Here is the input.
Amino acid sequence: MTDDKITRETRADILVQALPYIQRFQNKTIVVKYGGNAMLNDDLKTAVIEDVILMACVGIRTVLVHGGGPEIEAMLKKTGKESRFVNGLRYTDEETMDIVQMVLCGKVNKEITALIEKAGGRAIGISGVDGAMLKAHRMRGEVDLGLVGEIEVVDVSILNSILSSGVIPVVSSVAYGTGEDEGKTLNINADTAAARIAAAIGAEKLVLMTDVRGILRNVQDEDSLIKSASRQQLDNLKKEGILSHGMIPKADCCALALDGGVKRAHIIDGRLPHALLIELFTNEGIGTMIVPAY
Here is the structure.
């Protein structure tokens, strides 16, 4: 048997393995939160764009929600503005909000949209402010976070219109302010925005792309990956202290999505090329899958 024949058969086997997953997810909605190193590395960026286009081509209604922390940080440094974080969230005064809106809704959102178009896909870049898709009030707590919002309402009518036309919506995570901030733009955590959108639109899956393998039982050991967990087990992992630092808010977003009716939530390693396709279309999957119950 020649190497060429082995290669052909291997490729055919991969396609056959993907078939039942393509059939299962056809006409279903999957919300992907795109961020981390996959947004900064050109090869990974290309792979994500290719994955999203392929998903759309096989009939998966794909919503791409993005962050842009490193780009915001770079622009703040250019303007001489010092960053301040409280409990992992960026303190956002009016000057910072102007920069967040400019970077997320302008630079990052349109770059992603243009990359999808360049690669042969169709995309429309929007923000939570457009059509007041995301309405939010200022987050209240023991510590003032400034113009950081907590989502009240998600209006998915615009997203459904875009998806129905076969186009990929690319969503930047800012919201239309309500109450005392009526008409202002509020900064929203991108993971939270993705989770709330997934619940509101009745998504089959929420996929959070990160810079780790998934939930690790021991953060010092990447081989201690927890491949699957139920919603209840997720709470137990938090109580036991296994979830820590940046993984806590991501796990909370998965719980938020599941509690809102999303069937599966995934935390996957965006440092791996084509991580989305591996998760969606292979038997093994990738990262940590969280389900409502076993």
